[in-house]
Amino acid sequence: MGNNINELEQCALYLIQDTISGDFKIGISNNPAERKKEIRNQYNVGDLRGISITWFLTRNEALFWERKFHQKFRFWHSPERGGKEWFSLSSKQVNDFIKWMRASTKKRNENIDTLRELLDS
Fold this sequence. Notes:
The protein is α+β, with helices and mostly antiparallel strands. 49% of the residues lie in helices and 21% in strands. It has a four-stranded antiparallel beta sheet. It has helices at residues 5-8, 32-42, 59-72, 91-120; strands at residues 11-18, 24-29, 48-56, 86-87.
């Protein structure tokens, strides 16, 4: 896999919910707002509600975590929405995922702060 520019730009891992079915989509995008519009047109869904998001410095890193969570929730797959990124998750699963995303964001911010301190000194 070469270093094309798309692999090197920051990318988000997101969790959204279809408000009609209650199903959740786990995906990645470098433009989550635009992706939400695409999902409305592409899948069998009603209104979408953004639940949580965390950013990564590269698309490859976001893709790595997306695959991990798709694998983790594979037994809760919900193909009714269309596509393989939709899941019927419990409140506990969603809350645990949100906690992980918040911790991921906090860790990334701490790393950025550390880098800034090193560069400023």
